[in-house]
């Protein structure tokens, strides 16, 4: 089997990711590591590994972006089964063996994921995902959110190519692919967490959150169009604000998507670390959107829409975190301390 590893400036975490593949109980694999124009020494790290392990093949070229790199990996894979891996995550030793065995038993499943365990500050937490398992459950989940965690997925190469592969014009290339695969094939997840998903500050920004929110709504609308027999609006177009406007996606919907993502991350951080300050920082990204937006007048309207509903008032944001603390903190004393901190800050 081929493991595709896209790499871009992953130096701080890359060695652990590669070592986790080398430690797999399934030993018959090729790691296709594609350095997408890194400038931080990632290429040297990969080449050092390749000299020690002939199963590791390194390609380095100018930056083309994640979707193009993933598609290159799929096209160059030497096997019909392709596993994906992030350059900052850690696969558990039996991940590949467990997934490969499942795909052998279930020929209709084209993409198989696993649950993830949250990794924060290089420490594995007890926070695990609860993604749907069976194909029908994944199909019901699909209109709401991606049912598969991208770095955990093992794919059937021919199925991916049959639906057009990764589309580089989408900022949510994985969600777009799952939606198109589900039109013709089954998706599924294993119940166990077989990958540690690293949460770190460099992953998120207000500009990225906005693009992801827009693209998420666009690929959902494209899927709905295909299901109704209409042409795919993403054929030859990008999942961006221009396409969103053409499809009638409202600013309010984009704002709601951004807010949902920020709250979700805050809840994860709070549950995993008990750090009110770190969770608040995730929500603070919401305020950044209005200054980072490409169309200030349009996003000022969105800002006014949020403010009018009390969603950008500092006290309300902290109140939301207080509720998260009370719900997520396993330690009642910790929940009380976080709630008290929220109340104090609300009075500032």
List keywords for this structure.
single chain, 348 residues, alpha/beta, Spore Coat Polysaccharide Biosynthesis Protein SpsA, Chain A, 2 domains, nine-stranded mixed β-sheet, 14 helices, 50% helix
Detailed description of the structure:
Helix content is 50%, strand content 17%. It has 348 residues and is an alpha/beta fold. The chain folds into 2 domains: 2-202, Spore Coat Polysaccharide Biosynthesis Protein SpsA, Chain A, CATH 3.90.550.10; 204-329, no CATH class. Strands 1, 2, 3, 4, 5, 6, 7, 8 and 9 form a 9-stranded mixed β-sheet that branches. It is globular, with a radius of gyration of 21 Å.
What is shown here, in short?
The protein has 2 domains: 2-202, Spore Coat Polysaccharide Biosynthesis Protein SpsA, Chain A, CATH 3.90.550.10; 204-329, no CATH class.
The CATH architecture category of the largest domain equals: Alpha-Beta Complex
Count of the domains? 2
Nearest-angstrom radius of gyration?
Answer: 21 Å
**What is the overall shape?**
globular
Main sheet properties: 9 strands, mixed
| Helical segment count | 14
- Please indicate the percent range of residues in DSSP E strands (runs of 2 or more): 15-25%
Number of strands: 9
Approximate helicity band: 40-55%
- Are there runs of 5+ residues with pLDDT below 50, and where? 286-303, 305-348
What is the N-to-C succession of helices and strands?
A: EHEHEHEEHEEHEHHEHHHHHHH
Helix-strand makeup class: alpha/beta
Question: What is the third-level CATH name, the topology of the largest domain?
Answer: Spore Coat Polysaccharide Biosynthesis Protein SpsA, Chain A
- Overall mean pLDDT stands at 81
- Termini gap: 57 Å
- The CATH top-level class label of the largest domain: Alpha Beta
Name the CATH superfamily assignment of the largest domain.
Spore Coat Polysaccharide Biosynthesis Protein SpsA, Chain A
């Amino acid at each position: 089997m081929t493991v595709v590893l896209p790499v871009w400036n992953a130096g701080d975490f890359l060695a652990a990711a590669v070592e986790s593949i080398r430690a797999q109980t399934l030993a018959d694999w090729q790691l296709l590591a594609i350095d997408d124009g890194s400038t931080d020494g990632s290429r040297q790290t990969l080449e050092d590994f390749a000299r020690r392990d002939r199963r590791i093949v390194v390609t380095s070229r100018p930056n083309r972006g994640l979707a193009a790199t993933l598609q290159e990996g799929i096209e160059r894979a030497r096997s019909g089964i392709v596993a994906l891996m992030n350059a900052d995550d850690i696969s558990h030793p039996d991940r590949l063996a467990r997934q490969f065995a499942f795909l052998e038993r279930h020929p209709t499943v084209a993409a198989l994921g696993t649950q993830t365990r949250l990794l924060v500050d290089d420490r594995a937490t007890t926070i695990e995902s609860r993604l749907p398992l069976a194909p029908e459950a994944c199909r019901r989940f699909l209109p709401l959110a991606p049912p598969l965690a991208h770095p955990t997925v093992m794919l059937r190469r021919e199925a991916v190519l049959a639906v057009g592969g990764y589309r580089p014009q989408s900022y949510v290339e994985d969600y777009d692919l799952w939606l198109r695969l589900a039109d013709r094939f089954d998706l599924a997840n294993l119940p166990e967490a077989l990958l540690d998903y690293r949460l770190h500050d460099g992953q998120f920004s207000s500009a990225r959150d906005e693009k992801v929110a827009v693209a998420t709504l666009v690929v959902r609308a494209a899927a709905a169009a295909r299901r109704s027999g209409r042409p795919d609006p993403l054929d030859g177009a990008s999942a961006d604000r221009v396409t969103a406007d053409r499809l009638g996606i409202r600013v309010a919907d984009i704002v709601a998507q951004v807010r949902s993502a920020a709250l979700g991350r805050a809840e994860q951080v709070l549950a995993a670390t008990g750090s009110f300050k770190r969770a608040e920082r995730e929500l603070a990204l919401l305020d950044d959107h209005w200054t980072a937006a490409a169309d200030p007048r349009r996003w000022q309207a969105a800002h006014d829409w949020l403010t009018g509903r009390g969603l950008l008032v500092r006290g309300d944001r902290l109140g939301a975190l207080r509720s998260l603390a009370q719900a997520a903190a396993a330690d009642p004393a910790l929940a009380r301390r976080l709630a008290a901190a929220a109340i104090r800050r609300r009075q500032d």
